[in-house]
Amino acid sequence: MTDRKIRQISALLIEVYNGIMQVEDKYLRTTQFRDITVKEVHTIDAITMYDHKTTTAVARQLRLSPGTVTASIDKLVRKGYVVRLQSKDDQRVIRLGLTRRGRLIYRAHQSFHRQMTESFLNGMDLEQVDIIEHSLLNLQTFLQIADEKGDSNEND
């Protein structure tokens, strides 16, 4: 692969990432969820409607420190999107759940991503979709390795 092609794809990745963030932000500003940021929506997405995760589990998924996620969750609790639930199994463990409002934004965000993905894959055959999936898995692996290296550099 040529250096020019790599630069071109790199620029496209940056442009697409920034575009997704801008569109998500614009969408939020036109809904009843004007009081929430895109980062907070991604925290809600990590909490999910289906599991009652701990703050540590959410932090791990978002690749953020537990302290950073705790601050975000505190805001989401104040805004009425998230509740803290005491574990039935272990009273010391606090789990996270979504309020009705949190579930609404969760579903809206899931719908947005589904529409975006369907649009992205529109007109592709299964072989092309498999290539896209393989490429995204390569990117995900790179990000995981880079994240782990960053963690080990912080400990030096």
Automatic annotation (TrEMBL):
Residues 1-141 form the HTH marR-type domain. SMART domains: HTH_MARR. The keyword Transcription regulation applies. Gene3D superfamilies: Winged helix-like DNA-binding domain superfamily/Winged helix DNA-binding domain. Keywords: DNA-binding, Transcription, Transcription regulation. GO terms for molecular function: DNA binding; DNA-binding transcription factor activity. This is HTH marR-type domain-containing protein. It comes from Oenococcus oeni AWRIB429. The lineage of its organism: Bacteria, Bacillati, Bacillota, Bacilli, Lactobacillales.
